[in-house]
Amino acid sequence: MVVLIGALITGAPRAALADRGAGERDRETAARALRAYATRYVFAAAHLTPTYARQTGLACSACHTHFPELTATGRAFKLNGYVFRRSESLEGKSPEGQQSLLLNLVAPVSLMFQTSYTSTKKALPGTQNGTVLFPDQLSLFTGGEITPHVGGFLQVTFDPQSGQIGVDNADFRFATHGSVLSKRATFGLSVNNNPTVQDVWNSTPAWGFPYGSSAVAPAPGAATLIDGTLGQQVAGLTAYTMWNDRVYGEFGAYRSAPLGIQRPLDSTATGVIS
Fold first, then answer.
1. What is the rounded distance in angstroms from the CA atom of residue 196 to the CA atom of residue 8?
2. What are the residue ranges spanned by the domains of the chain?
3. Segment 35-86, tens digit of pLDDT
4. Which H helix or E strand runs over 248?
5. Could you tell me the pTM of the whole model?
6. Rg of the Cα atoms in the chain
7. 106-165 pLDDT, tens per residue?
8. Could you tell me if 160 and 135 are in contact, meaning their C-beta atoms sit under 8 angstroms apart?
9. 271: pLDDT confidence band, cut at 50, 70 and 90?
10. Residue 261 DSSP one-character state
C-alpha cells in the first residue's frame, strides 16, 4: 500500500515562581500575596504548553494556528525531525570537542486528560442515556530530539472502554538538508504507525476534523481505509522531501502490525494488509 504526506505535536505545564519572604509584621500582606500567587498558578497551569515548547522555548502559537493545525514554523520543526532546541540541558564534551552527553533538565513528558458526558435525544433500546467517561481518554506524550538528525513523537493512551494502556500515535524521523537546482531541500524518513500521522499540515485524517468525538454515541459505520481504520494497526516507512519551501512530496509503504493479536496473522484477523 502506498501513502502520501504526514504530521503531529503535544502538551506540558508551564512553571511559575513564588515570592516567599514575609516578616512577622506582614502576615496579612503575605496571605494576600499567597492568594494572588495561587490564582496565578491555577491560570498558568490551565494554559498548558507542549513538550516541544519546552524544548524550543517557543510559545504554542509559534507552531499552531490553533491545535492541532501547524504554522510554517511548526511544519519546519516537524520536517526537520523535531530536533530544534533552546531548552536548558546538561552537556558534556570529550577532549576532542565531540559531544558525549546531552540530557534535558526537564523531562520531555506531557499529559492529556479528557472527560466526557454523552446524551442522545433518544436512548438506544435497553441502554442507559447519559454516559459519563472519566477519563474519556488519558494520554502520555514524549518526544523531541534524540540525535542531531533524529527525533520523534510518541503517544501512549489509556482506553476506558477496554481498560487497557497501549501505544497510540508514533512518528520517528531522520532529516537532513541538501540542494536541488540550487534551491534548498529537506530530505527525511519517517517510521510511523498511522498513515497521515506524519502529515506536516495536520489536516489529513489522523489530525483532521473532528478533533474529538464521543466514544459511545451512534456514528456512521462507513469510512475509508485511511480514515482511522489502519491507525495503530500498521507499521510503515515513508520518504519525504520539501523543496524550496514550496513543493512537498512523500512516498511510503505499510505492513500490518496489529496490537493484541496472536502472531502469525491468520484468516481470522481483520484489517490486514495483504
1. 10
2. 2-13+32-85+105-118+131-213+228-256
3. 443 334 333 333 344 788 888 888 888 898 877 889 999 999 999 999 988 7
4. strand 247-256
5. 0.73
6. 23
7. 778 899 998 888 888 888 788 888 888 888 889 999 999 888 899 999 999 998 878 889
8. yes
9. low
10. -
Distances (CA, A) of 174 to 29, 69, 149, 216, 240: 54, 22, 6, 38, 10
Up-side HSE of residue 111: CA atoms within 13 Å toward CB? 8
104 strand-pairing partners: 89
Q: What cell does 274 get?
A: 495483504
Alpha-carbon dihedral sign for residues 245, 248, 253, 254: positive
Q: 83 vs 111, 142, 212, CA distance in Å?
A: 21, 13, 28
Residue 64 contacts residue 74 (beta carbons within 8 Å): yes
DSSP string, 86-129: -S-EEEEE-TTS-EEEEEESS--EEEEEEEEEE--SSPPTTS-S
Q: Cell 500521522, residue?
A: 197
**Cell matching residue 223:** 469510512
Q: How many CA atoms lie within 13 A of 189 on its CB side?
A: 7
At 46, is the secondary structure helix, strand, or coil? helix
Within 8 A by CB and 6+ apart from 1, the residues are 253, 254, 273
* Helix or strand (DSSP H, E) at 30: helix 27-46
